Amino acid sequence: MLRKLYDRTLLLAEHRHALWLLALVAFVESSVFPIPPDVLLIPIILARPHMAFRIAAICTVSSVAGGALGYAIGAMLFDTVGQPVLAFYGMEAKFDTFRSSFNENGALAVLFAGITPFPYKVITILSGATDLNFAAFMGYSLIARAARFFIVAALLWKFGPPIKTFIEKRLGLMFTIACVLLIGGFMAVKYL
Asked: What value, to the nearest 5°, has the Cα angle with vertex 174 and ends 20 and 87?
């Protein structure tokens, strides 16, 4: 089953609309969607290594634009949209305590969430809800998301075929590691 899903993802990565789908996933992931864009970013770069940095740029711009939407949700729609999203990630009860101290370290939180498996959407919504300076939010988001996606692109561009072989030989292990990172990010949100 895992092999079929992997093969379908690789076929999707070669589709002529794959970059549009990646842009859409990166955009919505930054505000509400739980699946990170790396799920598409990696196979698309493996399918088109000559476009690695263009693909990373598309993912970065889309993700930061989605981050602006997350910020807007937090700033303007916190009660109706933002709070239910934070409740989904287990942050609702801690929000009032967190709000007062967030802006002191908000820029570092944006950097941390933008680079790591920590759910970036939580920070985008919190940044808007706590009125973190929007220009600082956007600047740090751009730095963090570009670092994350361009490092992945550079590694896949340089070592693509061996990485693809490694992933294919150890598909179960790679899937397990990806799930652990994803679940770890959600657990970090819940218990931090």
From this structure: 65
Residue 86: Cβ-neighbour burial (10 angstroms; 0-12, 13-18, 19+): buried
The pair of three-digit structure tokens given for residue 95, joined into one six-digit string: 């929000």
Q: How far apart are CA 84 and CA 90, in angstroms?
A: 10
Diameter over CA atoms, the chain: 48
Cα separation, 152 vs 146, in Å, equals 10
Give residue-wise pLDDT tens across range 41-98: 888 998 889 999 999 999 999 999 999 999 999 899 887 877 787 778 777 767 766 6
Helix and strand numbers, DSSP H then E, in the chain? 9, 0
Query: Which SS3 state, helix, strand or coil, does residue 77 take?
Result: coil
Tell whether the torsion through CA atoms of 111, 114, 116 and 120 is positive or negative. Answer: positive
CA 92 to chain CA centroid, nearest Å: 21
Q: SS3 breakdown of the chain: % helix, strand, coil, rounded to 5? A: 85, 0, 15
